[in-house]
Design a protein that fits this description.
The complex is a heterodimer of chains A (about 110) and B (about 375).
Chain A lengths: L4 E11 L2 E8 L2 E6 L12 E5 L2 E6 L1 H13 L4 H12 L22
Antiparallel strand pairs in A: 1-2, 1-4, 2-3, 4-5
Chain B lengths: L9 H14 L4 E7 H10 L9 E8 L1 H4 L2 H11 L4 E5 L13 H6 L3 E4 L3 H10 L4 E8 L4 H14 L4 E8 L1 H10 L7 E5 H7 L4 H8 L3 E4 L3 H17 L4 E3 L11 H10 E8 L3 E10 L8 H4 L15 H5 L31 H7 L13
Parallel strand pairs in B: 1-2, 1-7, 3-4, 3-5, 5-6, 7-8, 8-9
Antiparallel strand pairs in B: 6-11, 10-11
Helix pairs in contact in B: 1-11, 2-15, 6-7, 7-12
The chains are: A alpha+beta (about 110), B alpha/beta (about 375).
Chain lengths: ~110, ~375
């Protein structure tokens, strides 16, 4: 459960005082909390994300390599949870609309 | 060398294995603390490649495995309430409680939602003001900052229908408890990389000094783990006992300060029971008094619960490193990932599930090295 997934910060925003940002995990995008790395991370930087929170900044090369190793070792269960949440949405009990899908970009996966 | 086929760099791994074997003048017994490391070790068969140089004991660092049965039963009671949306990380859904698991509660009509982040649970609460949303806040120090933030935000934004069922645990007191046990065999630790990414490693320095054990902060990839083992063996051979950082690309001595600070503002240290192990003093986190309004146990008046573990399950002995999973009589027969008796058979990071999934089936007493 303590595994983190490396991803690339695509954009930053501020949600009522909380630093948030869209992070790209090998093509799967998801909004994450950047509060704990807010002073050191800009769009384009790579972070290690655990349950939706960036816990450390990492170098790009390291992020790409780690992502591939995690994929090979089938240790990306957090991505499955991410997808399950995206499929169900958060609006209510009757399923609800999924979060709007982010437009695909041509930028490389981490 | 069939196990090495998945390495990014098999040559590096082979060289590390060779160095461990030539460095060890006697067998050493090490413990990897983190369940993610256990998964890697068993999946890649790292322990089987080291011959007699190193025996790995699998530590209790799997939050799914050590969440006490009482807390699982409280989760089940909350999830069964018609006014509650119960939210949890996905890997808690099949952990057996006294009577059933969260998945069964869901099939009986309870509302149980998997969330990726605790902020998802908070969002569900704001979108469902007529319901009570409870989040199952489990995990080690890696997860505590996320869960602390959800509570902090709930208070800040005044989300009154959100609460958390807290069952957080911390690593250093568990390591101390293992070292204090009269039958302890652990001579060195691989500490959990991402726990230390958040917390740093200052807390481990007094443990290494007091118990004279090397502690190597270690990552999760096969080559990380082999390098952690090598650093540990070298220290043992040289009579050193220091904290050393193998996972330099993610871990700094002081950790991630803003995360550590919010955890300290929201949570306080308490005695906590670990499933299969028992109570470990000051090993858990609970909400501080100023966040008591968000404590699900208080909000819903959950008192002490009477619980009983299945007698056939030896998860406690597995979690303390006294037996290997396949030495349990129920392993692979009464207890499988499809029908788990104990929590370590549920999580992919549990030692029992790792042994089962990667083919370490019971082959008689000769199969066990412990």
């Amino acid at each position: 459960m303590c595994l983190g997934i490396p991803g690339r910060v695509v954009e930053r925003r501020n949600d009522r005082g909380l630093p948030m940002g869209m992070v790209d995990f090998g093509g799967v995008k998801r909004e994450c909390c950047l509060a704990y790395v807010a002073d050191e991370v800009l769009p384009g930087d790579y972070v290690v994300v655990h349950v939706g929170f960036a816990i450390a900044k990492v170098a790009e090369e390291e992020a790409r390599r780690t992502f591939e190793v995690l994929r090979e070792m089938s240790q990306l269960e957090e991505l499955d949870w991410m997808r399950e949440v995206a499929d169900q949405g958060l609006s209510g009990l009757e399923g609800g609309a999924a979060r709007p899908a982010e437009a695909a970009t041509s930028e490389p996966a981490p | 060398m069939k196990y090495l086929s998945e390495y990014r760099d098999p040559a590096v791994a082979r060289a590390l294995i060779q160095r461990i074997k030539t460095s060890a003048t006697r067998p050493w017994t090490l413990m990897e603390v983190c369940g993610g490391q256990t998964h890697t070790i068993v999946r890649q068969g790292l322990d089987e490649l080291l011959g007699d140089a190193v025996e790995m004991i699998h530590g209790p660092g799997c939050p799914v495995c050590v969440t006490p049965l009482e807390q699982i039963d409280k989760a089940l009671a909350l999830a069964a309430r018609p006014d509650v949306i119960f939210t949890s990380f996905g890997d808690m859904l099949r952990v057996p409680g006294s009577e059933c698991d969260l998945q069964q509660i869901r099939s009986r009509g309870g509302t149980v939602r998997v969330v990726y982040s605790p902020l998802d649970a908070l969002e569900l609460a704001t979108r469902n003001p007529d319901k009570q949303v409870v989040f199952f806040a489990v995990g080690f120090e890696t997860t505590a900052p996320a869960n602390a933030m959800a509570v902090w935000r709930a208070k800040e934004l005044g989300v009154g229908n959100f609460s958390v069922l807290v069952s957080h645990v911390t690593v250093p007191p568990a390591m101390t408890a293992i070292l204090d046990a009269p039958d302890n065999r652990v001579q060195g630790f691989l500490a959990a990389g991402h726990v230390c990414t958040v917390m740093g490693w200052k807390e481990y320095e007094p443990i290494a000094a007091r118990y004279k054990v090397p502690i190597i902060v270690t990552g999760f990839e096969p080559v990380d783990i082999l390098e952690g083992m090598l650093l540990c063996v070298l220290q043992l051979e040289q009579g050193r006992h220091e904290v050393e950082n193998q996972y330099v690309r993610s871990v700094r001595r002081e950790g991630t300060r803003p995360a550590r600070e919010l955890v300290e503002r929201v949570f306080t240290l308490v005695d906590r029971k670990w499933r299969g192990i028992g109570e470990i003093p000051r090993s858990g986190l609970a909400l501080r008094a100023e966040f008591a309004d968000f404590d699900a146990e208080l909000r819903f008046g959950l008192g002490d619960m009477h619980v009983s573990e299945p007698a056939e399950c030896m998860a406690g002995d597995v979690l303390r490193g006294k037996i290997k999973p396949h030495q349990c009589p129920a392993f692979g027969t009464l207890c499988t990932p499809e029908r788990p008796l104990g929590a370590p058979m549920v999580s992919s990071e549990g030692a029992c599930a790792a042994y089962y999934n990667y083919g370490r089936l019971r082959t008689g007493a000769g199969a066990a090295r412990a």
